[in-house]
Amino acid sequence: MAKLGWIGMGNIGTPMALRMIDAGHEIMVWGRTRERLKPALDKGAADGASAAQLAAECDAVFLCISDTRAVEEVVFGPHGIASCGAPGKLVIDNSTINPQRTRELAKRLRDEHGMGWLDAPVSGGAIGAAAGKLACLVGGAAADFAQARPWIAAFASNITHMGDNGTGQVAKSCNQAVLTATLAVWGEVLEYAESNGLDPSRLVEALADSWSDSAVRRVHAPNMALKKYPKAKPTLMLKDLDILADTARATKSPMPISALVMNLYRQQLALGFETGGIIGFRQLYAGAAAEE
Ligand SMILES: NC(=O)c1ccc[n+]([C@@H]2O[C@H](COP(=O)([O-])OP(=O)(O)OC[C@H]3O[C@@H](n4cnc5c(N)ncnc54)[C@H](OP(=O)(O)O)[C@@H]3O)[C@@H](O)[C@H]2O)c1
C-alpha cells in the first residue's frame, strides 16, 4: 500500500486529511503548528519531523496550504520536499495557487529531482470536504493522474483531469470567477428583495429548482438572507481573484465581471469588514444603502 504525506491542516486541509485516514490510507503529517496536527495524529497518522522526511518516506505528498509562496517554500525551501525527493515520487498540490507558477515549480521539480506534480485544487468548502463531496480539478501527466485518482477519491466526488500542469489551477480560477460573481449578485438581490417587501429567506427557498438555483443558493444564500455573517476576512477570495486577474492579463482575456467583483471585495477589505469571503456583499450593499 502507498504511503502518503500530508501538509496543510487548516480549515479545508484538516477534513480532507481526516477523510484520507478514514479511507484506510497510511498517512504521515507534518506542519509548523503542532496543535493543528492533533486531529490527524489522534486518528493514527504518523508524525513527520519535516517536509523532507515526508518526501523521503512517502510515495506522494499532498499539500493544502495557504498560497503560492507557501507552496514554493514547502517544496524548495530548507528541509523541503525537493531536498529528499526522488524520481517516481509525486507532489499533489490541493492548494489554490497561480497556474503559471505551478508550471514553473512542476518543471523545476521534474528537471532537478525527477518528481511528478499534480495541481489538484478543490472546491466545495470544509463542509464538502468532510462529506467527501469536493470537486477536484487536476493538471499534470496522465499517468500521475491515474496513480493519484484513487487517493483523491477519499475527499472528492468529482475528479477531472483537465490537461497538463497548470490547467487544474486555471479551472479553479474559472470556478472562483463564477462563485464570487454569484455571491455578489445574491448580496444585491437580497437587499433589493427586502426593500421591495419580500421575505429574503422565502425568496431563497422559492428559487429552488429555478434557472438561478445553485450551490450558492442552497448553502450560502440562506445565511445571507438572515444576515448571518461568519467571521472571515475577504483576503482568501481576493487571493484567488488576484490569481484570476494575473492569468487573464497574461492571455489578454477580458474579464469585466470578475474585475468588478474584485473591486467589491477590495472595498470590503478597505472598510475593515470581518464578514467577507462568502457573504460580505450584503453587508456592503446594506451599508451603501444606509448612507444614502
Ligand atoms: N477554506 C476553503 O473553503 C477552501 C476551499 C477551496 C480551496 N481552498 C484552498 O486550500 C488552501 C488551504 O486553505 P485553508 O482554508 O485550509 O487555509 P488555512 O485554514 O489558512 O490553513 C493554511 C494551512 O497552510 C499552512 N501553511 C501556510 N504557510 C505554510 C508554510 N510556509 N509552511 C508550512 N505550512 C504552511 C498553515 O500552517 P500553520 O498552521 O503552521 O500556519 C495551515 O495549516 C488555500 O490555498 C485555499 O485557497 C480553501
Provide a descriptive summary of the structure in words.
Helix content is 54%, strand content 14%. With 292 residues, it is an alpha/beta fold. A six-stranded parallel beta sheet has the order 3-2-1-4-5-6, with helices on both faces. Helix 5 (99-113) links the parallel strand 5 (90-93) and strand 6 (116-119). Helix 8 (167-195) packs across helix 11 (235-250) and helix 8 crosses helix 12 (256-270). It starts with a strand and ends with a helix. NADP nicotinamide-adenine-dinucleotide phosphate binds at residues 8-13, 31-33, 36, 64-66, 70, 73-74, 95-96, 122-123, 125-126, 236.
Going across the biggest sheet, name each strand in turn.
3-2-1-4-5-6
CATH topology of the largest domain: Rossmann fold
Number of strands: 9
Strand content: 5-15%
Number of helices: 13
Distance between the termini: 64 Å
CATH superfamily of the largest domain: NAD(P)-binding Rossmann-like Domain
The ligands bound in this entry are:
NADP nicotinamide-adenine-dinucleotide phosphate
How many domains? The number is 2
Largest sheet: 6 strands, parallel
What is the arithmetic mean of pLDDT? 95
Overall morphology: globular
Provide the low-confidence segments as ranges: none
Task: Supply the CATH class of the largest domain.
Answer: Alpha Beta
